[in-house]
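Why LuxR C-terminal-related transcriptional regulator? Reviewers of the renewal asked for a concrete example.
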Amino acid sequence: MENIKKVYETITLITENSLQSSLLKDALGKLLGTDIDIISINTLSESLFLKGRRVNDLVIIDMSVCTEDKIEIYSTCRESYFPNSVEALINCDKSCQYSDLTHWTNLVGVFYNIDDIDLLAQGINKILHGELWLSRKLAQEYILHYRKTASVKTSNSYSKLTKREQQIIKLLGNGDTNIEIADKLFVSENTVKTHLHNVFKKINVRNRLQALIWAKENIGNEEFV
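Here is what the prediction returned.
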């Protein structure tokens, strides 16, 4: 779907074993051009991973089949066996807020139960290429959560970035997409991607989520005024 190098290559879908989930796996895999591995949420346990089961770079969790108990089991398994995998939630209720999602520690995408397969594929493809897929509302709640929970002073690492790089990382920290950043700075989207690539190397992060967290921890609130 894109020629730009992917940040993540492999996908695991956690859902129930059903005809619907099998059709979703096949349709999404075809649209993305990648194989998708399914783990049944009903068999999810530490013993599964002790037997050698693996989880891929991106984990997609079907919220329509999740209960509090199953989420707790998932969290325990993630902490021990795949702490670096990023997470996308599908079939979320449209009314969900960031406060409902705080236990998803590597969250990079939220999709709703009204989203069709084409929108899902579009968003997952963006995630595979290192972008976030969050509504503006959720992104702003995420940012406000970080600003309320920590008093941050601007770090020396931020000061060493060029003026343009500082502008771009601040806009990313505000939840803007590459296209929105490009529009605000009157540059092309490719220029934004090039700058972000350089920024990621300078601040030693792999992806957009890590960069967003870095921005919250290294850019003082006064810089966002």
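The chain has two domains: 11-134, 142-224. This is the kind of structural detail the renewal will allow us to pursue systematically.
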